[in-house]
Amino acid sequence: MNLDWNKTFQKILKSNKIALATHVHPDGDAYGSLLGMWHLLKNNGSNVTAFVDHTNHNGKYSFLPGYSELIEISQDNHEMYDLAVTLDCGDKGRVTGSEWLFSHSRQVINIDHHYSNPMFGHENIVDDRISSTCELLWKLSVDSKINISKEAATCLFTGIMTDTGNFLYENTSPETYRSTADLVEKGADSETVKFHLYHNKPLANIQFLGFLIQQMQVLLDGKVIILNISREILDNYGVSYEDLDEFVAFARDIKGVEVSALLKEMKDGNIKISLRSKSYFDVSELAQQFNGGGHQRAAGAVSPVDMEKTREQLKNLLEIYFQEKYYDNWNT
Ligand SMILES: [Mn+2]
């Protein structure tokens, strides 16, 4: 671990009034790192507030300890913070209440693991080789010898589980397993996490999955699957935004598929693109073609043109990538 990062982490521990935030449409690593950091700082005696935007959220992560203490971001809040820490945010625009947060804090520290992170903080602890922001927080805590409470451990454990796809993805290193073992030893409530994330799926989601499977488009000799979801369909099934991740992962897991894409019509008419790949395709590069970003195996972007045009652009780009960059992988 970079020595400067430990210094930066010490600086957070010594700061007076701290605001924490994560990205919009938070996932398990976002909530896990936000609440994990909140518990670490509370235990350290810091004055800390964790901010969220719960709009369009179904409370999938409301079992996490400290969830009810999260504060909704509000433009009416005129407090100034000595320090803001952003967690798991791949760029400044993805930070919840980004403008408000940057104008109400004297300094911003960016803690993240996205490969395309442009280092938007005054100081940055960004390691794209690590599985999750939660694993990074675990490492920073262990190196600075601060106490990890069982509440903090449960939160960090959750982010590691979700960002590694339960240790299936190649971002899972020996250190990832060590961090998880250590968190369980420190009291992480793995049973509760497993129940809420994997054994408690809403029936509507499974029915929706049935619909998606019926209408999925198999392209490029079965190497690619595209799923598209109109606003109307999503409303009809009552499936929430944060649950869509598992559907795109489901399509990627099919034999022979390298890339899966989910195109979702948003309220403003733009199309949200979620991309996943299995073993060699760098989908963050593909997402960048749509001004998005992410990781090599999971990335996303927003397209300003309609569903039909977005799908055509995506199809054409995929074809070019497979013919040029990934030609050698074609028959594998
Ligand atoms: Mn993450």
Mean pLDDT: 93
CATH class of the largest domain: Alpha Beta
Strand order of the largest sheet: 3-2-1-4-5-6
Helix content: 25-40%
**Going by CATH, what is the homologous superfamily of the largest domain?**
inorganic pyrophosphatase (n-terminal core)
Domain count: 2
- Largest beta sheet, briefly? 6 strands, parallel
Question: What fold name stands as the CATH topology of the largest domain?
Answer: inorganic pyrophosphatase (n-terminal core)
Q: Based on the structure given, which CATH architecture of the largest domain is correct?
A: Alpha-Beta Complex
Give an account of the 3D structure.
The protein folds into 2 domains: 3-198, inorganic pyrophosphatase (n-terminal core), CATH 3.90.1640; 203-329, Diaminopimelate Epimerase, Chain A, domain 1 (Roll), CATH 3.10.310. The chain has helices at 3-14, 28-43, 98-103, 133-143, 150-163, 174-185, 190-198, 203-215, 231-237, 244-252, 283-288, 307-323, and strands at residues 17-21, 47-52, 71-72, 83-87, 108-112, 123-126, 217-219, 224-229, 259-265, 271-277, 293-294, 298-303. The model has no long low-confidence stretch (mean pLDDT 93). It is of the alpha/beta class and 332 residues long. β4, α3 (98-103) and β5 (108-112) form a beta-alpha-beta unit. A 6-stranded parallel β-sheet has the order 3-2-1-4-5-6, with helices on one face. A 6-stranded mixed β-sheet has the order 7-8-9-10-12-11, with helices on both faces. α2 (28-43) packs antiparallel against α5 (150-163) and α5 (150-163) packs antiparallel against α6. It is 40% helix and 17% strand. The chain has 12 helices and 12 strands. The structure holds manganese (II) ion. Residues 29, 88, 113, 132-133, 163 line the site of manganese (II) ion. The site of manganese (II) ion (MN) has 6 residues, from loops.
